[in-house]
Amino acid sequence: xxxxxxxxxxxxxxxxxxxxxxxxxxxxxxxxxxxxxxxxxxxxxxxxxxxxxxxxxxxxxxxxxxxxxxxxxxxxxxxxxxxxxxxxxxxxxxxxxxxxxxxxxxxxxxxxxxxxxxxxxxxxxxxxxxxxxxxxxxxxxxxxxxxxxxxxxxxxxxxxxxxxxxxxxxxxxxxxxxxxxxxxxxxxxxxxxxxxxxxxxxxxxxxxxxxxxxxxxxxxxxxxxxxxxxxxxxxxxxxxxxxxxxxxxxxxxxxxxx
Length: 258
What we know:
Number of helices: 2
Radius of gyration: 29 Å
Strand content: 35-45%
Largest sheet: 6 strands, antiparallel
Number of domains: 2
Number of strands: 16
Structural class: alpha+beta
Mean pLDDT: 84
Shape: flat
Low-confidence stretches: none
Order of helices and strands: HHEEEEEEEEEEEEEEEE
Strand order of the largest sheet: 1-10-9-8-7-2
């Protein structure tokens, strides 16, 4: 009888041990799945942020480029128009709700389907109609940058850049010949190198107002970041940099003025 009691105790101990092992294994499995899920979500968040930063970087470059008359003219020139589209349109029939659409081949060297920034390989232009000129009036149009939303973690708003253009020919068959004078802007830069916290400010000339701007930071042993980048009233653009490495950093500010 004592032998049976001892055997039952041993069996109970073994059973409890197995139950404990199963419970611990289940808890470990749940914790591992939770950690993996957190890592996956964090990776997605980081990728989404990188995609957004890449779109902002491309918008900055496009704004600066279109502000230069020669670049604007090249963007909407006949050599950059895709087959099937035309720079000739009926200026009496276009409107915001019914624009004349021109498909363009490239912008800043990027064509439909291409990656717009080295910051993110997943932020690409739409495979077709990635770059368009939408004519909304006899002298106004928007350069549209359409992203491929299918490759993004989160949808990013397409970019739109208003321009004014010149035409030749009769109103019913007007042909775009280039960007208008009102698209001309002046670009000013300022560079400051200082220990840790340089601030650079690019100022417009007297009588001009800032319409956009940006800048960059470099140095600091390769680890630096932008503290702020914003207009200074309406007369210029300022950028502030920082590095935790206690080294010199170079701040470059760019102001687009008209």
